[in-house]
Design a protein that fits this description.
Number of helices: 3
Structural class: alpha+beta
Distance between the termini: 89 Å
Radius of gyration: 30 Å
Order of helices and strands: HEEEEEEHEEEHEE
Shape: elongated
Length: about 210
């Protein structure tokens, strides 16, 4: 009788041990003691990145199209240019922006793509000034910090842009002291608007406003 009870007790202890070991391998269990599963919350977005105006020359005429030198790019000849005419092209670049779970940014830039031609330089610059707009505004200041390397101290400020992305900017000692207890910072941003959808824009840091 006593031997039977002893065997039953041993079996119960073994069953409990097996249950605990199984729970430790289950990340959803309260008994799990391992590191939590890595978060995979990277976000990817395509944003307008930059524009430029390039002086070019009309090459061969091909039906209703034309080639534009020096890249020999084939474009619609909407303004009835002649071979040898000087034209200005508006070129566009977008970016694939990956933001990781720890707010780090990875940027892959596209090649330049020609959007439009102009018969005079000023018309091209006018369009460019509407697509790349400089603004002064306050943004959230995540914080400031210092690093030391080989006896030298460097200061940094971490800003959160309107897009939600965070950037790190080096700052001098005076700005470090000025920003140390601040929650926002006044900055100059360059808003780059999408040519086809003006409401779609991406803001890039271009300097401190004061």
């Amino acid at each position: 009788m006593r031997a039977g009870r002893a065997r039953a007790g041993v079996l119960a202890l073994l069953l409990t041990a097996v249950m605990l070991l199984s729970a430790c391998g289950n990340q959803d269990s309260v008994f799990h003691t391992g590191a939590p599963a890595a978060e995979t919350t990277d976000s990817v977005a395509t944003v307008p990145w930059d524009y430029r105006v390039v002086e070019s020359t009309v090459g061969d005429l091909v039906g209703s199209d034309m080639t534009v030198l020096p890249d020999n790019e084939l474009l619609p000849n909407d303004n009835n240019y002649a071979t040898g005419d000087k034209v200005w092209t508006l070129q566009f670049m977008d970016a694939e922006l990956t933001t990781t779970a720890d707010q780090k940014n990875e940027i892959n830039l596209s090649a330049w793509d020609t959007l439009k031609t102009y018969p005079d330089h000023q018309a091209a610059i006018d369009d460019l000034s509407n697509l790349k707009v400089s603004i002064t505004t306050d943004v959230d200041l995540v914080g400031v910090y210092q690093t030391s390397y080989q006896g030298k101290t460097r200061n940094f400020a971490v800003l959160e842009l309107p897009s939600g992305n965070r950037i790190k900017q080096p700052i001098d000692n005076d700005r470090y002291k000025a920003l140390e207890k601040q929650k926002t910072a006044s900055v100059v941003l360059e808003e780059v608007h999408d040519f086809a959808d003006y409401d779609l824009a991406y803001a890039k840091f271009r300097g401190w406003a004061n």
